[in-house]
Amino acid sequence: MIRRMKVCNRCGESKPLSEFNPHMGRLDHLQDFCIYCYSKPYRAENKQEKERAYNREWSKRNRDKKCHHAEKRRTRLHDAIHDLSVSEWNVILDLYEHRCAYCGRHECEVGSLAREHVTPVSRGGGYTTLNIVPSCARCNSKKGARTPDEAGIQLHRVPLKQMDLF
Question: Which of 9, 28, 68, 95 is the one with CA 20 to 30 A from 61?
Fold first, then answer.
């Protein structure tokens, strides 16, 4: 029995025709590359791109979850406490009436409000309901890794007590 063979243009090996995918546009109706050479690089290249695209879309849809995971990682690195959930953050926003705790501007005026630590994480402050207040980007940037007193800014509202939340 005679086995018909074809040389793969990528690896240069002579392989049986069954090792090549069909391609109707070619004269022999077969791909130029063997199944192994064709599929491996394609999967590797496209898998990374598909994962990146999926992760970008997930991040856009789940901004709160992404921030929450980043916060938890940051607190682990600083050996700080993290017991603030997404729902508790939403309650804090409601109690502050979606206003910056420092300048009092409303969320619709400043874009979005960030979770601001009254005592910075680098100084032992954690992600707790007693230490987190909503802050606009300008006030958050102005305060930096300092306490409000050191930064020369005052809170319009005192940080909430645990019993005020629930």
Answer: 95
The set of residues, in sequence order, having a beta carbon less than 8 Å from that of 18 and lying 6+ positions away, is none
Q: Do 132 and 86 fall into the same domain?
A: yes
Please compute Rg for the chain using Cα positions: 28
pTM, full prediction: 0.56
Angle (deg, nearest 10), helices 63-77 and 86-95: 100
Instruction: Please state the separation of Cα 90 from the chain's center in Å.
Output: 19
Q: Could you tell me the residue range of the domain that residue 96 belongs to?
A: 63-165
| Domain contains 97 | yes
Residue 43 lies in a domain: yes
Report the distance separating Cα 129 and Cα 88, nearest Å: 7
Residue 73 Cα to chain centre, angstroms: 12
Dump pLDDT digits (tens) for 70-95: 888 877 777 777 788 888 888 888 88
Residues 24 and 70 in one domain: no
Helices (H), the chain: 35-61, 63-77, 86-95, 107-110, 137-143, 148-151, 162-165
CB 160 within 8 A of CB 137: no
